[in-house]
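Please complete every field before forwarding. Incomplete forms are returned to the sender.

SECTION A: IDENTIFIERS
Entry label: holo-475
Bound molecule: magnesium ion
Molecule representation: SMILES string

SECTION B: INPUTS
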Amino acid sequence: MHGSPESHPAGGGIQGELRTSMADKQVILIAEDDPNVGESLRHLLKKKGYETLLAANGKEALSLFRQGMVDLVITDLVMPKMDGIELLGAVKALRPETEVIVISAQGTIEKAVQAMKLGAFDFIEKPINPRVFSLVVERALEKQTLVLQNRDLRSKLEDKFHFKNIVGRSEKMVKVFELIRHIAPYDSSVLIIGESGTGKELIANAIHFHSPRAAMPFIKVSCASLSEGIIESELFGHEKGAFTGAITSRKGRFELAHNGTLFLDEVEDIPPSTQIKLLRVLQEGEFERAGGNKTIKVNIRIIAASNRDLQEAVKNGTFREDLYYRLNVVNIKLPPLKDRRDDIPFLANFFIEKYNQKYGMKVEGISQRAMNHIIGYQWSGNVRELENTIESSMVINSPKVIDIHHLPLEIREFKTRPEMLSIKIGTPLEEVERDVLIQTLKATRGNKRKAAQLLGINVRTIHRKMEGIGDPTSV
Ligand SMILES: Nc1ncnc2c1ncn2[C@@H]1O[C@H](COP(=O)(O)OP(=O)(O)OP(=O)(O)O)[C@@H](O)[C@H]1O
Ligand SMILES: [Mg+2]
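SECTION C: PREDICTED COMPLEX
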């Protein structure tokens, strides 16, 4: 499930249609280099009640598709940068159940036939007959729904970590997703660095479930929660009698994760003596259980996570440099939420949808005023804090729409950054101008000369425009 507000365009600098309702509309991605054709298809689909995303070539389309919101792809065949056949191949590789409809112009019929062989749902010839087009789209989505229903049989876990459930439209997160897609299939170690609550565990899971190891175990070790005494036995297991209390032999997490992925969370907390053993497993893929002398071989991919930059721990001498380099083959930095505010409205609506489902509620969304506060807040607990805030305001108030007074005091009273303004798409320009004027005047504490300078107009114009507004600093 995924939702997004009416007010925020898709990130990444790519032209994106907005999701105008909460997650219940199907999203169709159109890849078409001819803007006239693209726009007219988009218009047609919108009239039929679909959401649309428009990309000018295959490459743009693919990066939109990677964000995981798309239900159906419609692509032209001949396009610059990446053509329709390549796009089809990529879409089928990433998510085979997604249907792709191909548009063929005169002279590309052979390519269209090739596309059908590669798994395209159907092809439509230009000039496009709107009735035929709508029918094909409907049929493709119908098939898609059936496939998705069957897919429910698949493990819930896998679904949870599907990219569809990781929200991120900011340029920074889109880059992270691209990196993950890229590196997931390989066995290289991954080090994820990010503040608490930025989604490290979610990303670790996503990597595993997009790797060939997906069907094998994903085993997590919270290194910080294990005392020095037991971490080795947790990781490597022990033989009966290895220490007082070892009444039976036991497999460690390394053995449990064989052929799968081992997630070392809070890796900076691994004590130095264990770091050496860890290094050996990483280098040679083997170890012994505590109190045992049989060498055990394992095939494991390691994903490690840390709240802080491990380089510092290396400098301080608390973390082995050689181990650091072994873990840090692929480095993923998850930016704090305040550095990707574009994601906030999408995340907020995603969580509303999530808790609507969980608790059988029907919260419709967030008022624009409340959203402005949410976007402007500091979110030191990052996504987890945002999620908790949404959940608690829903559970405590059961609101129809979450408004300012449903938010916790610290968010209500947090001063939104004066330099930021959030404007609903479709706001009449006159209103936009008024808002910008008011906020700029507020930011300059009513200093009209300064405001005029910032806005690139002269003071007289400000005076004139203000006539209908009154004293904005008292608003
Ligand atoms: N991009 C995202 N989209 C949807 N949900 C997210 C996203 N990022 C984080 N979350 C949710 O926020 C919560 C915290 O995420 P997670 O546990 O992965 O963070 P973390 O970085 O491991 O935190 P910590 O360092 O405290 O362990 C989870 O409920 C997770 O599902
Ligand atoms: Mg975590």
